[in-house]
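Predicting holo structure, flavin-adenine dinucleotide bound.
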Amino acid sequence: MNIDFLIIGQGLAGSLLAWELIARGCTVFIIDNGNENASQVAAGLINPITGMRFVKAADIDYLLPAAKQSYQQLANFFQQDFFIEKPMLRRFGSETEYNNAQKRLLEPAYQPYLGRLHKTQHKTGYFTAPQGFIEQKQTGYLLTQPLLNCLKDFFIAKSCYRQTCFNAEAIQFAPTLQWQDIKPKQIIFCEGYHAKQNPWFSWLPFQLAKGEILTLEHAHDLPDNLLNYGNWLIPLNSRHLRIGATFDHKHINININITEQAKTELLNALTLINADFAKANCIKQQANIRPCTLDKHPFIGRHPHHQQLAIFNGFGAKGSLQIPWYSKQFAHALLNHSPIPANIERYYATHFLG
Ligand SMILES: Cc1cc2nc3c(=O)[nH]c(=O)nc-3n(C[C@H](O)[C@H](O)[C@H](O)COP(=O)(O)OP(=O)(O)OC[C@H]3O[C@@H](n4cnc5c(N)ncnc54)[C@H](O)[C@@H]3O)c2cc1C
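Done. Tokens:
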């Protein structure tokens, strides 16, 4: 089988890159091992303003419109919504946070993303906020699992998907690039954290971070806002919510087991903001690993010695926001030999030992 691109991994990165390449008329084949991946576990949150200082990421002004446009295009194609835009209430943990938010409200660049500021001691029926809270705009979450299911069915219908484990050691380079019966012009690895085991790209400085997330059932009505209280809360409907996520750089060892420690940590933080949540019933706990990177930028580009091998990875904790824009740019670069964004060339000299 002769094709343009063989894509390894059907997480959000591999799926959206394949979608963009197919839209540009390329022949694509996707391989995935079928295991639960980080994209399926992720909450899919998009939050333009983060941290104690309420910083707007420099790239948000082009990443966010690209993400909204891609998810709307996919919604139109599959006739169902994937990106759920909902305001977020950001609870202050200290007076300093309140003061920082107040300053940001005066900056014109922040006005599209920030709403009303609520004073200290303000009470809501939903959560306690002794230091107050602020409303955030242009926040929301991606329903990643339904999106990936639709894309998988789409790839299967086009006969360009196979569920199997790709063994990168078995790639033949001569007389032409080949893996089993497939002869691609290029192979693009979109393997998430599994890249650490890839013989061609494991030299890249990943800083993997395990995360755990809970789905709860609650007897009382939930308001229709996202909530950020250090952790986040997403009301899925009037009775079900997701909370998360832990962030663990240390106990990785490619271990995606769920832990009692993470469950306790997440539930304790939740009951601190509303004791009533102690009655909520935990119906699901999931864990997976974020493909975070040393410099917090994605890893995109070609292998230094084998230009037919490329990587599209390193979207860390921001896959839902970043992957749409980067998949459009990378698809364009692959077809037009234009500059590759977040190019791994930046690590050739310091990390690739040959
Ligand atoms: C608990 C948690 C919460 C998160 N919350 C958010 C959030 O709120 N917002 C956000 O934007 N991001 C969030 N993330 C991060 C997000 O999940 C990632 O940025 C994104 O999913 C990465 O997508 P990916 O396609 O690169 O990797 P993955 O989704 O892991 O996909 C990689 C795929 O490749 C397959 N694969 C790998 N190697 C092989 C092989 N050799 N052969 C066959 N198949 C292979 C894997 O099985 C997998 O299906 C969260 C992550 C976690 C773990």
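The radius of gyration is 21 Å.
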